[in-house]
Design a protein that fits this description.
mainly beta, 3 domains, 4 helices
Length: about 325
């Protein structure tokens, strides 16, 4: 038997339908659509949830609590490079045990069009884009290696690698699909750049690369201590690095193949026979004061912008 709330809702809707359609002297419907309207109204109100029939005075029980900023791991996973600018894509990973809400409201620099909230399950990813504030004008481009944001009302400094014509701002935030299996060799590129072996997912498919276990043709060494942020899964465009130590003698180029424990074998350009590569999980390539922007001044001229943007694309042919 329907409850009182449902009977009241059904009665109210039927009364409105009856008044709108009119009736004859016997009280019967005057138009052919009135019985159908009554059926539709009854079906509609019968299928309403209890919270739709009566006013709700409590929060939804499944609303996540604010994220603890200490449980959100951040790193610059990729960079979107333009003609005179670069937007950093900062990964947000929930390393807590419960799903939670990332709330950026209160951040000092945030585009008013951004969606400031993101809910993340444990282990899930989000992407925060840090790029140019097109409303600002100051005439001198600059590099940005860290950004002050607010997560749930708590101030947090995140590493970044942006190049902006004037000032930076938070331009977008959204969830990222989880990896759907191991990476394949065709989607992974690797090259030695300076004292690092750089690895990138060149596809659009998130995948697992795992830890580096071996590099043919060169010696390997285990890191003395874990990297501050260890990365084993790559979204499209994500770039990670492994330390390379060069030998003191003159060395010959080698056709090296890097092997990862997710079952991925990747050809590597630029290694030499006397190099030693650090094995284990990868670490972020772009991050902050140790990334490719570390040697550049905060303020740039036109020629320096070109050099900075080139440094942000380590896999480009040189």
């Amino acid at each position: 038997m329907p409850g009182p709330a449902r009977l009241v809702a059904v009665t109210a809707v039927i009364a409105v339908v009856a008044a709108a359609c009119g009736s004859d002297s016997s009280g019967g419907p005057t138009g052919p659509t009135a019985p159908r309207a009554r059926e539709d109204a009854e079906t509609l109100t019968t299928n309403l949830a209890a919270s739709q029939v009566t006013a709700s005075t409590v929060a939804r029980p499944d609303t996540p609590p604010p994220c603890d900023p200490a449980e959100i791991t951040t790193w610059t996973a990729a960079v979107d490079i333009g003609a005179d600018r670069a937007t950093a894509i900062v990964r947000l990973r929930n390393d807590g045990t419960a799903w939670c809400e990332i709330d950026l409201r209160g951040s000092r620099r945030i585009d008013p069009r951004i969606e400031p909230d993101l809910w993340l399950e444990p282990g899930a990813w989000g992407d925060l884009w840090i790029g140019p504030d097109d409303s600002a004008t100051c005439g001198q481009p600059k590099v940005v290696v860290s950004a002050e944001i607010t997560i749930g009302g708590v101030a947090r400094t995140v590493p970044t690698a942006a190049v902006v014509p004037c000032e930076w701002t938070l331009t977008a935030m959204y969830g990222v699909d989880a990896p759907v299996g191991p990476c394949d060799a065709a989607s992974i590129a690797a090259v030695r750049v300076g004292d690092e072996l750089v690895v990138r997912n060149t596809s659009f498919r998130p995948c697992t690369v795992g830890a580096l276990v071996e590099v043919d043709g060169v010696a390997t060494a285990v890191r003395a201590e874990p990297a501050p942020v260890e990365v084993r899964h790559l979204a499209g465009g994500d770039t990670i690095a492994f330390a390379v130590t060069a030998g003191s003698a003159a060395c010959d180029p080698v056709d090296a193949v890097a092997r990862f424990d997710a079952g991925v074998d990747v050809a590597v350009r630029g290694l030499e026979s006397c190099d030693t590569v650090s094995v284990g999980a990868g670490e972020p390539f772009y991050d902050g004061v140790t990334g490719p922007l570390a040697g550049f001044p905060a303020g740039l001229d036109g020629l320096e912008v070109v050099a900075v943007l080139a440094a942000l694309d380590p896999l480009a042919e040189r």
